[in-house]
Each structure stands twice: as C-alpha cells, then as structure tokens.
C-alpha cells in the first residue's frame, strides 16, 4: 500500500484549469481498484492519495497518467507501507480489491 503526497509546484491559478482532468484520472483508478481515498491537503498545497493493489513500478506508471504530472504542476512523494493494525471495522477498506 502507498501514501502518495502531491506537492503543487505551480500556483493555484495554474492548477485549477486541470482539476477536472485530475478528478477524471482519480475516478478511473478508483474504478480499477487502485485508489482507496484521496483529497486535498489543508492548506491547499497539494493532495493525498492512498493507493493499493499495485507494485511500485505500476504505481509510477499510473501517476505518469495524472494531468498534474504531465503538465508539471505537482511533484510526488511516495511512501510505501504495510498496514498491520486497524480501527474496528476498517480492515475491509484496506483489503485487496476483488
């Protein structure tokens, strides 16, 4: 499992015109079972994606599809981890997609 931290490297007026394409990218990968949760950082300096069911090379290929990457609007920090402890009832959120 991976935590992907997006850090904007352009000002928000350059980010906003690409937001719908970025959301479409996210939707494709939610449907594919790759993304568990995502959202903006607060304050709005970037975003966070929790990804699963991919190895690192696959994740890199997926992120290369992101309009924020293609347009050089964000850089990515990737943290791989193995979830081993869960809040009651949360295990299903982190199980591999079927």
Automatic annotation (TrEMBL):
The keyword Lyase does not apply. Pfam families: YCII. Keywords: Hydrolase. The keyword Hydrolase applies. Residues 1-82 form the YCII-related domain. SUPFAM superfamilies: Dimeric alpha+beta barrel (SSF54909). GO terms for molecular function: hydrolase activity. Belongs to the YciI family. This is GTP cyclohydrolase. It comes from Cupriavidus basilensis.
